[in-house]
Amino acid sequence: MSAPSRVRVTGPLAPFADGFCAELSSQGYRPDAATSQVRLMAHLSRWLAAGGLDVAVLTPKVNTEFLAARRAHGYTQWLSPKALAPLIAYLRGLSVVPLAPVAVESAADALLARYRDHMVFERAVCRATAHTYVGLVRPFVVRHVLGAGLDLAGSACRDVTEFVRASCTGRSSASAKLLVTAMRSLLGFLFIDGLIQEPLASCVPSVAGWRHAGLPRSLESRDVPRLLAACDRRTRTGQRNFAILTMLVRLGLRAGEICALRLDDFDWRSGEVVIHGKGNRAERLPLPAGVGEAVVDYLQRARPSTATSRTVFVRARAPHRGITSSAVYFAVCSTAEQAGLGRLGPHALRHTAAVQMVRAGAALPEVGQVLRHRRLLTTAIYAKVDRDRLRQVARPWPGGAR
């Protein structure tokens, strides 16, 4: 195992080598990974010295030139801007490298920024959802923005309809419905902000689809132990994934709620946990013993001591930042495939928790309370999963036909 401190760094970056080694260690980098980072630093320093350049010239353009030269010299690893990110971030923290240039904000960007702030601060929409909405409606705003306003005079309704129809082509029903929701949200903001003179939300065509037409995809009771057993709890990643999957399948959490969990959210004395859900709402849920044991096992044995925040679940690889929803999805999907259960997402485990409660005799309002649904209609889809009860209330078809 190589030690990063043994790598010789010459040139303009030499004075920063020891500090960079200490920074990598504090972030939880393993010796081999840290050594690779310092070797990259040494190569960059030699390249700067050969060109008579100083540290202060390390702009994104110069970084790209270095990576191209590194590739031309036959190197096959550490060739992307992401490879230089830890070093550049460290040097920027010391104020020896200029900050990344700020792009000039266009009129469309300014309008979308106001729309995003309206959703987050006025409508209590979580930032991830606001970011998604902004991405969906950006093409419409870019196309129609004109100076400080929108160019929709005379054909506003037609422009909205044509944009939605063109953008929904090739999308799934769920994706198209999300786009329609985002467009109605944007048009509502534009009317409130005075950029359009009449509400245009009614111009957005609806997407063909039938609510509650199918059954929610969930695991059978016998498959839940198989899924949890597929986590290799001998590794840190396996212990983390076991705790995540246990919370998903027992408490019915969303992927984003898993990512938002903080160490302060657990009240171990009262056996409760605070969940930060949609609409920036924080609600308390009882913490079952099995769930608490899985989380404690992860915290005591697998959570890195070099975690950079008080987020409960952090990356397995350095730097140990909080995980994202994509990481939760990958944990569920990869574990389900190892268990032979096919492709599975986090929301299927939320459905599993709800179905198990219904089959155990819980009433729909109780299920909705655990899942933190705002409306009982949202919980109504689980009424169809209890087939034994449905048989008791089913009426025979007129005429005696089966």
List the helices and strands and how they pair.
Layout: H1 17-26, H2 31-50, H3 60-72, H4 81-93, H5 107-122, H6 127-144, E1 145-146, E2 149-150, H7 156-168, H8 173-192, H9 223-229, H10 236-251, H11 255-260, E3 266-267, E4 272-276, E5 282-286, H12 289-301, H13 325-338, H14 346-359, H15 364-371, H16 376-379, H17 387-393
Helix pairs in contact: 1-2, 5-6, 6-8, 7-8, 9-10, 10-12, 10-14, 14-15
Instruction: Look at the structure and give the mean pLDDT.
Output: 88
Instruction: Output the radius of gyration.
Output: 27 Å
The proportion of strand residues reads under 5%
Give me the secondary-structure category.
mainly alpha
Enumerate the spans where pLDDT stays under 50 for 5 or more consecutive residues.
Answer: none
Beta strands, count: 5
Largest sheet: 3 strands, antiparallel
Biggest sheet strand line-up: 3-4-5
Gross morphology:
globular
**Order of H and E elements:** HHHHHHEEHHHHHEEEHHHHHH
Number of helices: 17
The termini sit apart by: 73 Å
Helix share bin: 40-55%
Short description:
The chain is mainly alpha-helical and 402 residues long. It contains 17 helices and 5 strands.
